Amino acid sequence: MALVVQKFGGTSVADAERMREVADHVARTVRRGDQVVLVVSAMGKETDELLRLAAEVSSVHPGREMDMLITAGERKAMALVCMALHHIGIDSESFTGSQAGFLTDTNHRNAKILEVRPDRIRASLDAGRVAVLGGSQGVSTDHEVTFLGRGGSDTTAVAIAHALGAECCELYTDVTGVYTTDPRVVPTARRMPTISFDELLEMTATGCPKPAMRSVEYARTHGVRLHVRSAFTWQEGTWVDEEEPDMEQAIVSAVTHDTSEAKMTLAGVPDRPGVAATVFRALADQEVNVDMIVQNVSDHGVTDISFTVPHADLASAMEHTERLAAEVGAAGVSSDDTIARVSVVGAGMRSNPGVAATMFETLSSCGVNIQMISTSAIRVSCVVDGGQVEDAVRALHEAFGLHEA
Amino acid sequence: MALVVQKFGGTSVADAERMREVADHVARTVRRGDQVVLVVSAMGKETDELLRLAAEVSSVHPGREMDMLITAGERKAMALVCMALHHIGIDSESFTGSQAGFLTDTNHRNAKILEVRPDRIRASLDAGRVAVLGGSQGVSTDHEVTFLGRGGSDTTAVAIAHALGAECCELYTDVTGVYTTDPRVVPTARRMPTISFDELLEMTATGCPKPAMRSVEYARTHGVRLHVRSAFTWQEGTWVDEEEPDMEQAIVSAVTHDTSEAKMTLAGVPDRPGVAATVFRALADQEVNVDMIVQNVSDHGVTDISFTVPHADLASAMEHTERLAAEVGAAGVSSDDTIARVSVVGAGMRSNPGVAATMFETLSSCGVNIQMISTSAIRVSCVVDGGQVEDAVRALHEAFGLHEA
Predict the structure, then answer these.
(1) Measured between alpha carbons, how far is A313 from B184 in angstroms, rounded to an integer?
(2) Is the ipTM of this complex over 0.85?
(3) Is there a contact between A65 and B72 if contact means CB atoms under 8 Å apart?
């Protein structure tokens, strides 16, 4: 008998019929002899709907009230899924974040888990029940309801798996695992049977939407084995685990792309210490989520700094950066919201030079101009024109031989 | 500076615009110098929608899960209304039943309040805030979330008013108070400036839909003054209070009617002790909500027992009663779902005989046949044909002079 955590997202519990399918899935696991902790998100688009209502009601959104509002969505879903389990004879109980022992800090909307005390969950499992947890929620050290943020249900699942010492944490999505690239762009994209935490982190940071990056970090820190798989087949998905030291590494494991960001350039910046710090501290204080930052070498004492920001933050970022440009004596600020980022990721890159060169040659040969470059030990990213990004993904997937078995 | 409890129902918080109107109303009370505890129900038809979802998902509805599901509705509403208050500069905090200190028994779906420990509410008021409570919820002695039942928000309001020693509890509805009869049936119906708890209880028991009967009982038991009024005028509504011993009593205060029930008759029942007990205990065990019960005098050792049940319970009640009829040796069971009940209510009836006679004469003179009669110290009810009930209401309202000032 194994203990497994199974997490289903909003799409999987969007209506009564899908909830019953989730219940059937859990029932098969239970009848196989395993203990199950089930984590569910809010139904379908419910979280968006609650945010829309809040925007309609008020321009002021105290964190305490927002978290109370948003967590209502997961409460509904967990109670309904629990009923669906009872309907097919599976005994179960639902638990809020507080009931499940998720103690968090007081940072509303995006609370951090401090500790998980799963006494009630253990008791429920010991009594032979399935424990159903509302995702992405906890109770703060101030005894207030907290929300762990969008995508927080994945984190809930990983954290409860760690706290209970579960054999693995199964994250169910609408695809059958993690792919070498987005299958909507490259139909021959291949499901990876295994991937390391580091690679998956780089992928989620550069456009792979699931699982949520934070949950992968949590799993890596605490050594929780993840299994990313499809809800409605019993086919194996993708296992995410520590890298085996002697594993034969693929040089490049995956190609990702991200069209959610815009590029900003602060031109003619005086090249003296502290300028970059001034700019990016000020943007951080405005909660502008700056991503890729590139600074060219200095030319005659001035330099250009380019960076990417989410489309949603662009207007605010432009406003603040224009003010900062004057302060630090820069020549001006420009932005481009038609860019995209394409990245190649692979743990084998560490011991294989030349990946960046191959990437640049591939992009060049299909006429894609590179606007910005940044690299990590296991990733190379290029900012390119948004209209060319799918061509770039297809060419890179082909060039690195990812469609082959 | 007075402390007032204000309760708004689902219609008053059905959308963002109405929530903002509620916030404006509360703001005016606060700016007058009063402290406010606000109690809100779930938005519009949300509770019905949650029940529909539960029915769609499962035929098994554990009480614990149902209460978790349904209370999500009030949590949403309270957080949103709180934001609407912040939007206009009124500091406020929302509280679940548990946070507000509502300790209940473990009877899910219809939990009874055991104790209210309003420490957090007092602290919020002392800090100069409006405390916003989600209605109809608490936490059980087993530490589970409980629901106080449909209409339970009125009870929440009365209970918190009692626990805090509030000056009064204002129950806001879509009409401007309690009327001498349903104004949709009799346009000249008159708003009553005052009414006693006993009269209002009889009225709510016989078809006056608001406030919820249970909250009136709670208010009577604990001596909480109620003010039933309209949300969107500052006009006085109806005060509900103890009867003044020397008050000049109206003989008849109001005419009510109820079309939500069907009549059942168990015919040819052997007239021996225990038969009625057998029948009604069995129906109670099936949670059939039997209301008016009338038994005729025995004729040749057999009698007829008639009673009313909600339309929703009729099919189940017929099934069980047919089985019981055989058990107790009755001749048969019949039902009629086209009936209605009309009642006259008045504390002055206690010292004025002849009200029943006037009622029967009035019904007779407008051609309404009486099928069943039952009385209490301050009420007379008749079951009549459903098609004639509005005529009966109009005639009785006229006959007892209720349209006069």
Answers:
(1) 54
(2) no
(3) no
